[in-house]
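quick one, 133 residues, struct below
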Amino acid sequence: TEKIALMNQWISLAMTRLDQNIIRNFVIPMVFADTKQRHDPGFAVRMNQMGDLIAHDLGVLDDAYVDGWLFGDRFTIPDMMIMPMLHYLYAMPGGPEMIGNAPNVKTAFTRFKARSSAAQTDPLLPDQILKSA
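---
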């Protein structure tokens, strides 16, 4: 049905765009950048460009999260895929500001963190991530 098609669309977006932009091209490079890389102007330019792409993606998500979750009051598989990505984004420099600029996403993320299932499965952030934030 249409709802299943929309759900598959959000899953596809999460795996093909959000994972690439947030995790693979922003979080991982930030975590594994050494001191030399962090002071490389080219690295800063790339991370700023990724920040702009992520801000755009969060704007798209912000419209979709206007009713609470992607599918209204139901926490569904696409939400389960997106929220952990936001968790790691939030730990990065500039992450809280990016999420904060998308108020519906921020509200959904706050609701996600308050869920008992999220608290019980909270991924432990390695010291390296926490030091970079």
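DSSP finds eight helices and no strands in the chain.
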